[in-house]
Amino acid sequence: MVDSSVLELALGPTSGARRANCERLSRRQAGCHEDDKKLLGELLTLRPAPSDDEVSRVISIDLATWRRNPKLAAVVFRGLAKNRSTHLVSQIVRIMLDSQFGTNVLHYNAAISACAGGSQWPLALSLLSCMPEGRVGADAVSYNSAISACVQGRQWHLALHMLRNMPAARVRPTQISCNSAISTCQTRGQWPRALDLLDSMPLLRLVPNSRSYGAAIDACQTEGQWSAALSLLGDSLSLGAPADRISYNSAISACEKAGQWQVAMNLFSRMSCASIAPDVFSFNAAISSCEKGCQWQLALQLLSGMPRRTLTPNAISYNAAISACSQGSQWQWALGLLNFMPGLALKPDQISFNAAISACGNADLWRLALKVLGDMRQAKVAPNVISYCAVIKACETGNEWQLGLVFLNDMNRQSLVLDEFTYNAAISACESGGQWQLALSLLESMPQMRVAPDEISFNAAISACEKGREWQIALSLMTCMRVVLIKPSEISYNAAISACGGGSQWGLALSLLTNMPDARVMPNKISYSAAINACEKGCQWALALGLLYTMPLVQLVPHHIAFSAAMLACISCNHWQHIFGLLDEMLRVGVEPDHCISAALLT
């Protein structure tokens, strides 16, 4: 029998409308769902922010069947969520409450689940908090759905709060509760919480399953915590919760992010031993690990092996392979893969073009890098900050500092936000071109553009001053680094020592070298060679020899630059008697005389 109250709602102004509504109601109560799409369409065609009365008129016929069968409401709720109309889900639940519909936990669960599926965690939590108002007690499904909504919104703190509150609400957490809470810990810096949650499951009398371990491994993957990921993978196997494909993929990705390409490839190989067939995600993570390890041949081997496993490489696969070739300075392969993508119905994106531009820049092919940038624009792919940074770097290697500054100005005209990487590339381009004034101007402009200079920025500027024989400014920059709490590195010291040497300030050069250990920066071969060179320019042959013979005492083998500078110091001061001793020492440590030494000896 049809409820009389519902029939009253269904009555239309005409007999035809009454008959249509009654027929629709009869079909719904008979279990016929063909009107679901029609109802969903009517709801979706309502004006934005419809009133409760407008929504009530649309759903009035279906309320009776929803009361008896909440699954029918769930179908409509899911449809609204898929169409990004979860606000209507919340509104319908409120209407159901106001009309004393008799809403139960199943209706709430359907609504909360729909909000979770629509990535609307605020609505999901709002519905959960409203359940006591409707005198409906939440169950495990209610909490699990709300926690799942927090996974999409990366709201780990709210997920953990709900998990802790479940016992107080007399709801026992389940595996799903804990697994979902662990999944929220994929947010940056929260992987230790994921491990704590996993460890706490036995205290709740819950046995972690494959999904529990998989969620924890995925949390470790986010920050490249490869050792923790491997430990979890081993624990899952030993505790009878065999790792699945997702767990392996996450562990491989963790190794990739940490630059552990050998471990990543070992895991990839173990998948087959565990009777787990790698999928596209597995291959992509493995290829990306090869990129980090500059293993371009292995990356190409993996890419070519995908079709043999009936797997179709996607844009991510090719991007990772192009990046691997870029890291290995294999520009021909990088461009070949880029040009091959359209033939496979794969559209190159910013990552594809950026990697190809970098490959050309790494090979000192700045003209080719500019051509790829032009191809990028022709393909209607907008260059981004990374694109311009790669082009400016290519200009640096080609000593085309003017072009580098042109592209920097282009970025400003296009309102692209310049970052420290872009500035560093431009400063380095000016340094390569001997334009120390422009390098300093760029460095000084960084704070005005709200970009904080880093160690690379200062090092490039100091090197520019070295080339410009501006040793005073180089030393001032070293002081500035300390003021802004940037620790000078060995590169900073080496450039400053060279600058002092170029300015015939051998005393300052030696002072910098001597002070390096106190600053917890250990001198290297370049440091000593620069100091020896400074002594040579200051005709301090004895100091030059002293520094050269000190190098083995600090576990450093002098190279030809150090020997060349020491020999020139002796020759310029007419102390030829030391030359043969230096030649013997060169032969002893296996250093071949270069053209500078040969020319000095001939003179």
What does this structure look like?
The protein has a domain at 1-184: Serine Threonine Protein Phosphatase 5, Tetratricopeptide repeat (Alpha Horseshoe), CATH 1.25.40. The longest helix is centred in the N-terminal third of the chain and has 15 residues, at 15-29. 69% of the residues lie in helices and 0% in strands. It has helices at residues 4-10, 15-29, 36-44, 52-59, 63-68, 70-82, 86-98, 105-117, 121-130, 140-153, 156-165, 175-184, 191-200, 210-222, 226-238, 245-257, 261-273, 280-292, 296-305, 315-327, 331-340, 350-362, 366-378, 385-397, 401-413, 420-432, 436-445, 455-467, 471-483, 490-502, 506-515, 525-537, 541-550, 560-572, 579-589, 595-602. It starts with a helix and ends with a helix. It is elongated, with a radius of gyration of 34 Å. Helix 19 runs antiparallel to helix 20 (315-327) and helix 24 runs antiparallel to helix 25 (401-413). The protein has 36 helices and no strands. With 603 residues, the chain is mainly α.
